[in-house]
Amino acid sequence: MIQMLSLDAPPIPPSLNMPAIPYQRASAQARYIGVPTEFWSRGWIVELGATAIALMLILLESQGGYDRPRYVPRERREAYGVSHNTWTQGRKDLERHGLLTVGRTPQGGDFDYTRMRNTYWINEKRLHTPPGAVSHHSVDPTIPAQ
User: Fold this and answer.
1) Could you give the angle at the alpha carbon of 97 between the alpha carbons of 131 and 58, nearest 5°?
2) What is the CATH number of the domain that holds 71?
3) Model confidence over 15-36: pLDDT tens digits?
4) How far is it, in rounded angstroms, from Cα 86 to Cα 88?
């Protein structure tokens, strides 16, 4: 849009020419995730690389509402625009910090070719501890706590 400049009136920002959209709560619009405040206060934001943070957010969205590790289909991974290398690098970083548990699960029906797929689970409780307090013991949500 070309706007003529006038010495009499200030220019009108393009955003004022847009139609008003009524407010809607985020939960009514789409899925969203919550990240514990300890992600910032414990220093995870500076400890983790950008790829690990991106993958953590993707996996938190994927596991939202579930209590078991999830398989992330290729189409879902592609929807985020994350390359295979970025996924792998982020995965290794999250595993190294004890934030991610990767498991294996069979996929396919009784008469289909059964393939083993990776499942992913972000250990959100690990974010409550400082990054240096590495627990090489990952939490598997499929095993009941003792």
Assistant:
1) 105
2) 1.10.10
3) 666 677 776 665 555 667 889 9
4) 5
